[in-house]
Each structure stands twice: as C-alpha cells, then as structure tokens.
Amino acid sequence: MEQRFLGRSGMQVSSLALGLMTFGGGEGKFGAIGNVSGVDARRIVDLAIDRGVTLFDTSDNYSAGQSEEIFAQALGGRRKNILIATKAFGRTGRGAHDIGLSRHHLISACEASLKRLNTEWIDLYQVHNHDSLVPMEETLAALDELVRAGKVRYIGCSNHFAWQLVKALGLSALHGWNSYQSQQILYSLLYRHAENELLPAGSDRNIGSLIYSPLAQGYLTGKFAQDDSKASRLAITDQLHGVDNDRARKIVQALIDVAASHEGASPGQVALAWLLARPGVTSLIIGARTPAQLEDNLRACELTLTREEHDLLEQVSAIAPTYPRTAQNVFHPERNPPVFAQPARKKPRND
After folding, report:
1. Which of 31, 136, 137, 301 could be cross-linked to 26 through a Cys-Cys bond (beta carbons 3.0 to 4.6 Å apart)?
2. Residue among 62, 125, 180, 219 flagged as catalytic
3. Which pLDDT belongs to residue 351?
C-alpha cells in the first residue's frame, strides 16, 4: 500500500487508514455504529496490518474509551511499526474540566488514552473539534508540552474552519510551538464542501488531510440502491432521509456504472479510488464491522480510474461554488484557476 508523508512531518502514513469507531461494547450512541470486540477485532486488525495499513484512528470518546482498549488488546505486541492516532475533546466525565481543549482536560485526557492504549506514546494526537471557550494559545501550548514530554509525536486538528487552522499555525510559529501537521475532515463524492477552503488551505500550508466518512456512512457503497439498508448506520440513526436525494442517487448510479467496467470492482471501491487521487488528500479513514467489509474497501488501492471516469464522477457530484470563489470566477478567472481541476495523486518525497 502506498505510504504518504503527513503534512510537513517526516511521518509516513498508509493511504488507507483503519477507523476504529466500530470497536466497542454496543452501548450508547456508538452502539448503532458497531460493537466489534474480542476475536472479531483481532481479525480486522490482523487483516489491515497484513494488507499494509499502518495508521489506526480512534478517539477517547468512542464507546467511552472502549475503542482504545479493544484496539490495544487486538494489536498486542505489534506496537513498534504501527501508528496510533487518537483524539480529545469530548466529554469523559461529569466535571467542569472533563470536556474541551483546556490544558487541564488535554493533559489528563492524554494520560488516560495512553493507559487505555497500553502505549508510552501517541503518534498523532488530534483535537476533535474547535473550542471557542478556551484560548487557542492555551490549547496549543498544552499540546506542545505533550510533544516535548515525549507522550505525543505529532499533533493535528479536526472539524476546524480554514481560518481556525491557519490561525493555529500562525500562533505556533509565533511562539515556537510544535504545530498541527494534519486536519481530519469530512470529504466524499457526496460531501465536497471541503474543496471550498479546507483542502486549499491544507495544500497551501502543507498540512496533511485525513478524510473521514469517505463513503458517506456507507451510502456510496450502493447498498441503498439495492434496498439493503435496514441495518445501516444511516437508517438506524434516522439520517437516511437527509442524505437520499436525486443528486445522491445519481452519484451512486455513476459509481455502479463505473464499477461495472472494472472486473470485480464495487461502487465503494470506485468512490475511494476517486478520493485517493484528489489533490491534498493524504489518507482515507475507512471503518469496518467485518473482515469482508474491510477487504472490499482495501481493494480500492488496486483500482485505477480513467480520465473519463474521473470526469464523470466530477460532473455528477459537482456542487455550486460559493462566495468568494464566485467573484473570482466571474471577474478574474485567468488569475484564479480552479484548485481542484485536475486530480493528482500525492507522491512521497525522496529527500
């Protein structure tokens, strides 16, 4: 599997990463997403490692920390060559400091994650959201302390506006702190809004982009077109009605048509292959409740789409530009070419 450098760092990550939101005990809101544990978790982790996956992504609030614990048990003694990414922000208790991005919460949350993950360090520690109630300087200084203490190797953010990301980079540079190397963001053929500012900002600042929900919670696999959706996450969480519309169905049909021209390919593989070739994309975080689901997703690395197929998917999923891109397109398009006009697979540096 292709390995890509994460942002400006020297850390290389697999182009497909395994998301561990499905690892848990089946209770609470995450129970609808997955209840993988024990032997099943070990089989999924084994398959991912065998196929070249090096990055595993979880969070301290996935099933109240059970995701981290189950992954640690499944990983066993194979820690050395595996990259662990986890996140902090969500509520972990009833106290005032059991949520958010204060120094108090971040340091205690990191210590708790290290214990659950049974590791001495976290390769990529990410803030799960922006905290408008805590000064950004406090958050960044605390993250820098964790890196300097050797508990964290690299840091990243998730679900930030582009201006919040760039502001954080500026503050880190000003104070000499370790800075964000990645942003974890929502992006897929169904949700292309990251192309407006997040991906261009990441490309401009050389920040890696880790893509979550690349299959739109399974919608882009085509299961809904086949009426095989009763047990899906979207159906269980009552989100299907907000996703399933004419545009979405046209995208799925295009994926089905493209898959039919590649022997053995599935619509989900086509959707992932399209994303893997997009500018600014470092790694796609794929989830799985069974080894079969994971195997299907992993085969996306073997699929190469034609220029015509890229164009078809581009056209059927296109979204209307927003301001100020509209003004740039109208008044001076020759000075502001589209950032995502040509897909280009990111290659590792050789230096």
Report:
1. 31
2. 62
3. 44
